[in-house]
């Protein structure tokens, strides 16, 4: 009943005695989660979830920002609806393992996606001839969904970016970054207003810190390094030694 009151406050439903009237003109936005059965759960900003049956999720993928139209209350007294539009994909990049090569298409399975199995396909004419021959079944490609095309359910046209093996970075790390849509490059549009020097006037919690600037350190970092992250310092105190690494202190007996 508490959930129904929240929905009534948001203008999604009207409660008339034992009847629940759905305002079908309402379209809401939220992030969708997809179950293994393919059903969707769209979480609204209020915390309320709208259940979206498998056949009404359209081409939504786990984590997408979608527009959903509520159409009724189901048997479990939960609000149900349908996805009307994919507003923004939850990820920029996807991994696809090649499963089949045809004269006009290259098909593959999209990896690291929750819910039902999803496939991607490349138009051969969008790839250089040499690359078409180089791509083989079992290869893992890094691809991007083509947003300007209509996608069938669980089948998506993709754009080839590169082979997964082309990166010099750790593959497991790159897979995690892609799955959760993190970028390893620092955004150029973020400007940090940091002080040139660190002292009492520029650090709010100065009194809560331990001042170790009087310690002499040995470092393997270069003369002009601005990030001394490989430095040690020893201080003899009776029969104990304080071992300092960067700005942390450990006691060695």
TrEMBL record:
Reply yes or no: does the keyword RNA-binding apply: no
User: What molecular function terms (GO) are annotated for this protein?
Assistant: exonuclease activity
**Keyword flag Ribonucleoprotein:** no
Recorded hits in InterPro entries, A to Z, give:
NA-bd_OB-fold (IPR012340), RNase_B_OB_dom (IPR013223)
What keywords appear on the UniProt entry? Exonuclease, Hydrolase, Nuclease
Q: Which domain of life is it from?
A: Bacteria
SUPFAM superfamilies recorded: Nucleic acid-binding proteins (SSF50249)
Question: Which Pfam family, any one, appears in the UniProt record?
Answer: OB_RNB
Which residues are in the Ribonuclease B N-terminal OB domain?
Answer: 30-86
The name this protein goes by in its record: Ribonuclease B, OB domain protein
Which source organism? Answer: Leptospira interrogans serovar Pyrogenes str. L0374
According to the entry, what is the taxonomic lineage of the organism? Answer: Bacteria, Pseudomonadati, Spirochaetota, Spirochaetia, Leptospirales
């Amino acid at each position: 009943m508490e959930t129904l009151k929240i929905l009534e406050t948001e203008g999604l439903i009207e409660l008339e005695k034992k009847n629940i009237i759905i305002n079908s003109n309402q379209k809401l936005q939220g992030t969708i989660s997809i179950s293994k059965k393919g059903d969707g759960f769209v979480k609204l900003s209020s915390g309320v979830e709208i259940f979206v049956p498998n056949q009404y999720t359209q081409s939504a993928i786990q984590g997408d920002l979608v527009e959903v139209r509520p159409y009724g209350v189901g048997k479990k007294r939960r609000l149900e609806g349908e996805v009307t539009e994919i507003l923004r994909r939850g990820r920029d990049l996807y991994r696809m393992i090649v499963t089949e090569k045809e004269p006009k298409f290259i098909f593959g399975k999209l990896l690291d996606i929750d819910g039902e199995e999803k496939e991607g396909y490349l138009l051969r004419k969008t790839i250089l001839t040499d690359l078409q021959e180089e791509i083989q079944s079992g290869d893992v490609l890094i691809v991007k969904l083509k947003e300007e095309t209509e996608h069938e359910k669980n089948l998506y046209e993709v754009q080839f970016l590169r082979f997964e093996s082309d990166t010099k970075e750790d593959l497991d790390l790159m897979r995690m970054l892609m799955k959760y849509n993190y970028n390893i490059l620092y955004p150029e549009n973020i400007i940090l207003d940091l002080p040139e020097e660190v002292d009492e006037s520029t650090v709010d919690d100065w009194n809560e810190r331990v001042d170790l600037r009087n310690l002499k350190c040995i470092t393997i970092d270069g003369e002009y390094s601005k990030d001394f992250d490989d430095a040690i310092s020893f201080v003899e105190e009776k029969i104990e030694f304080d071992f300092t690494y960067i700005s942390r202190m450990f006691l060695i007996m």
